Amino acid sequence: MKKHFPEVKAALAGAAVFVALPAFAQSTVTLYGVVDNGIGYQSSATTLGSTSGGRSAVKMLTGVWLGSRFGLTGAEDLGGGTKAIFTLEQGFSPANGAMATSGLMFSRQAFVGMTNDRYGTLTAGRQYASYVQMLLPYSPVNWLTGFFGAHPGDLDGLDTIYRANNTLVYTSPKLYGFKFSGSYSLAGVPGSINRGSTWATGIQYSQGPLGFAVGFSRINNSTSGGGPFGVDSTTSNAGAQAGVSAVTNGYQTAQAQQRFAVGAGYTFNSQFDITATYTNVQYIPGVGSSFRDQAVWNTGGVVLHWKPAAAWDFATGYSYTRASRANGITSAAQYQQFNLSQYYALSKRTGLYAVEAYQRANGKTLGTDGKSIINATATIGDGFNSTPSSSPSMVGLAVGIVHRF
Fold this sequence. Notes:
This protein has 405 residues and is mostly beta strands. It has four helices and 20 strands.
């Protein structure tokens, strides 16, 4: 299946500038990057946790189609089909020049490892866990973008905001259409190998027009028994918890997060393909958590992609998310999201895009304190996690330009 891999593939095989290393004739280093800027509109914007005071906003948005970044990736041929590889990648905002994550020099990826066509690839560092790597071909973000098209708040981690520190990832070579991957992230907490760790696994199949993947991940809070997200947690972004949105805001003190996902796709012809996903997400409380009952969200989504001409790509998608009845909530939160995207390639490296989305939330959820019950509010994709709607509805629009180098 021919897909975009906006957050991973660009890091490994983007437009390149090759520089020969002086000591090794079989070594290369690639400088690559993406610059993406646009103008966006949202119908209601407020602070996270608020259910009032929202106002419409028009602002410059960066990284809508592809996250803006620059990076270095390289390989050295060690002989016998084995190569040493590395990637260093930093996200940034071309709107103001700021780093994507303050305090992290290579916030997106920073890893080194070995690869062999017969034995697979082993890497170590800050990188994407196996769950993301195996499921990404069937994620809604490929054509709808993560900013607008990720399932609400990227609850199920099918975008790539859940990067894991101190991570070992092994990915097997492809055999009869199958590929396996497993990862483990070490938190290094004294006296405990489990606290703060992350582990994930996944299997992927792709042969001809059909493909599918299954993945599982568990993220453990380094704070014993749950509570404030510990800085030693391996999915920490310079101490901050990833994926906090209006959907999960009341559950930040979970002792652990678990995600299970199934994705599949079928390519009908060179112009039309379809992908679908089902995910189950669980936030598990501990003795120190603000909420008492396990919270569960189930999400189903589908994306239709149409390529009528070489320069054009169109896509539409729908997803439905439903929370469990728990923590005193009898009217569980529900989120329905509708997406459209249009892309026009000016060249192989430069394109213009437009994206549109609408989300409707219903039911109740927990407030910031993890105890009070409030109305569920809309939060499109994962680009509005810190500025969700104050009401059950939200409209988002954006147009922009993206250049790869």
